[in-house]
């Protein structure tokens, strides 16, 4: 048992060291990714479940180091957050999304949604940066939705949380919409929702898969309750990770207005968004 224990420690150390190396390598690569134009945005449609029309597109970062393989956001975003690089990268993403979304909004009335990290949100200049970018691109403020998570609102001191909530409320008063991302994965009590400056709830994918699973009765009751509560609070709901027609049908019956997932479209390039908006395949 002692030998086995020793082995476990050795293995653990090794993995930890590998993880650190990996982290340093990613950080070094990321530091030059912006200048080397290795970052792009893909866009995933959010659709109206009843009409099939595209309601918005979510901007999602893509990083392909030159001469290398694409690194998934779940791997590089945490490193960008640790190193603080997310502030610059996030500003670039906001800028790029507003520039690209301008045509889509003018022609089709479609909003663009941009993910914001906690680190970005805590920057003192965040509010001014957002409003400045919107003004410079002459994009109506309601054409932008910012996606934040409950954990980033809570993972700080109460005073700092209050300040961030005030910044979001201020942006919202200016017309920018706020979406609460990955809803249901945090610790929030539903009552807490009333105090947050939020327009849209994005129900996490972990609620979608069980809708057609073994415990589907319970899963459906749960999702239905969230959708109804949100409607009662005048919030829209987007269900994430919809992969089958069966799931889409169940959600539509529950009165869920909006959905996103591979059933409708994976994240696609801006040119593909142009094509898709022209043909509107779900009408
Ligand atoms: P998220 O904001 O929850 O984005 C949804 C993720 O689910 C995306 O992964 C999307 O490609 C994936 N997805 C969409 N539909 C389906 C489906 O039907 N099935 C499955 N299995 N997955 C689906 P992606 O693009 O790899 O992004 C992962 C995460 O990285 C995002 O999760 C977000 O937290 C973060 N991220 C991406 N772009 C940005 C960004 O610009 N800024 C910040 N701060 N975070 C970002
Ligand atoms: Ca998101
Ligand atoms: Ca999400
Ligand atoms: Ca997520």
Automatic annotation (TrEMBL):
This is Diguanylate cyclase/phosphodiesterase. Coiled coil: none annotated. Residues 23-281 form the EAL domain. The chain holds residues 503 to 785 of 788 of the full protein. Signal peptide: none annotated. It comes from Planobispora takensis.
